[in-house]
Amino acid sequence: MSFWVSGRRVLVTGGLGFIGSNLVRKLLDLGAKVRVVDCLRSGDGGNRFNLKDVDGQYELIDGSLEHRAVTETAVDGCDVVFHMAGKVSHIDSLARPLEDLIDNAATTVAILDACRRLNPSARIVIAGTRQVYGTPLRLPVSEDHPLRPPDFNAVSKIAAEYYARVASERLGLSTLVLRLTNVYGPRQLVSHSRASFTGWFIRQALLGETIDLFGSGLQYRDLLYVDDAVNAFILAAEKLPGNGEAWNCGTEEPVSLAEFAEMLVRLAGTGEVRRIPFPPERKQIDIGDFSTDSSRLRAVTGWNPRIGLEEGLRRTVEFYRLFGDHYWSATS
Predict the structure, then answer these.
(1) Which residues have a Cβ under 8 Å from the Cβ of 192 and sit 6 or more positions away?
(2) Cα–Cα nearest to 130, from 191, 67, 220, 204
(3) Does some domain include residue 2?
(4) CA gap 256, 309 in Å, rounded
(5) How many domains does the chain have?
(6) DSSP bridge partners of 273
(7) pTM score above 0.85
(8) pLDDT digit string (tens) for 290-305?
(9) By residue range, what is the domain housing residue 105?
(10) How far does the chain reach from its first CA to its final CA, in angstroms?
(11) How do residues 101-142 score in pLDDT, each as one tens digit?
């Protein structure tokens, strides 16, 4: 991993959340001067325990990016901005679309505008999602695949991408987006099932509960261990052009939900798996099979995921066995 961030001033929004906190830890290891902004809204994944053992090594701004003063303070003087904050729940977006729009699109606009006024030379890397493609027309999915959002969360994420592109093309800001596939690993939100099936399955297995697979369970997904996702963000900030483009980020080695769940139960030594019919609220956001074509990202940055599914799940199980009490509750 490159040490180009050593000594640089770096902002991580949502830095107490899942991917954000793992990114903060890696940046600190590489010698970056890290600032974190997080509002710690209950149920969204922010958790002070995620960075408890590195308290004092980073600057924390406790506040919401909706507030101009918070955003201005956050971006001021930073060389790189990793915008990781936002909503990820597809189900919640359908129930509370305005909240989803504010937390994904409006906060992105706030970051971009603050950088335009106060810090126009900053590199801005935004966490996107493969959900923007919706139900694939072809596999694997490359960046030229049509955007077919299946829910409001995907719409707000697309809006954030377009704001970033326009900010680059019209305002001269250096922006880019990584469209992440399903990321899993330590420090993930596991307190409810609305954010991610991976986190919920991990919780159920470790608590000895039954993992319900909807339909056949043979739908496959591209699963990325969080350390590999973090490395992709750091390499992207260093090596990708800041022209507003979006780049796929996935393993290109899809596995079925059944394979994921059964491997997890085996490694945990607890839990069980069963198949049940799709609940209506889940069926309406299901996209079927998905696999990612990340060849552009790999070619330009040299990034390659290094942690296979079994090793990643083993590390994840070990983490929650040790620290699960800090994650089972939504208000941790």
Answers:
(1) 43, 200, 330
(2) 220
(3) no
(4) 12
(5) 1
(6) 211
(7) yes
(8) 999 999 999 999 999 9
(9) 9-188+224-252+291-306
(10) 32
(11) 899 999 999 999 999 999 999 999 999 999 999 999 999 999
